[in-house]
Design brief:
CATH superfamily: Tetracycline Repressor, domain 2
Number of domains: 1
CATH topology: Tetracycline Repressor, domain 2
Largest sheet: none
Number of strands: 0
Length: 196
């Protein structure tokens, strides 16, 4: 990963809008395939879903690790950018928080197989957890603060604790088709509300 903050998944300065859009489509296709088949899914499946040739994927992402990192970063960015947008467009800050947590759960669920890849010996994955926290903790804090200031939730809820709790609820969901973490997360988020 470069020190300039640009790495796989971050648009380079001057990249044409259509090239960024195509890369975004490719990353979303890869995320969807990873969610159903894991990060070791065949590249041809990702290419088919994105409607591109395999050469296009290899041109953008020469190694599988490059693609995994780009998908992860793209999803983190999508989740981070959604927070302020939801706060501006939702009827209440609590509604924005609940909708953002839904997106966060979607992000966690699409990480199928990514956890194992992140624990691998590949040093390219080392900075991703810090990146995840740096981008998403402030967004979650902003949403929690807005909902608390509006009197909709209890005060003093820490973003890290909430995100860690949601993450723990989502663990193992892919191994048990009877378990729907979204229902449990809904209960958790409902429990944040101020009584009465």
């Amino acid at each position: 990963m470069n020190d300039d903050g640009k790495g796989p998944g971050r648009p380079a300065r001057g990249k044409r809008a259509d090239a960024r859009r195509n890369e975004g489509t490719l990353l979303e296709a890869a995320a969807a395939v990873f969610a159903t088949s894991g990060v070791e899914a065949p590249v041809r499946d990702i290419a088919a879903r994105a409607g591109v040739g395999m050469g296009t994927i290899y041109r953008h992402f020469p190694k599988r690790a490059d693609l995994i990192i780009a998908v992860y970063r793209h999803q983190v960015e999508t989740c981070a950018e959604a927070g302020p947008e939801l706060l501006a467009s939702s009827a209440t800050p609590y509604g924005a928080l609940a909708r953002w947590i839904d997106l966060f759960v979607d992000f966690l669920v699409t990480k199928h197989g990514l956890a194992a890849a992140l624990r691998s010996d590949n040093t390219a994955f080392d900075a991703l957890h810090a990146y995840f926290l740096d981008r998403l903790l402030p967004v979650c804090s902003q949403l929690l603060d807005a909902a608390a200031e509006a009197g909709e939730i209890r005060c003093g809820i820490e973003a890290y604790e909430l995100m860690r709790g949601v993450g723990n609820i989502c663990i193992g969901a892919e191994e048990d088709p009877r378990y729907d973490p979204r229902r449990v997360v809904e209960l958790l988020i409902a429990g944040l509300q101020r009584p009465g």
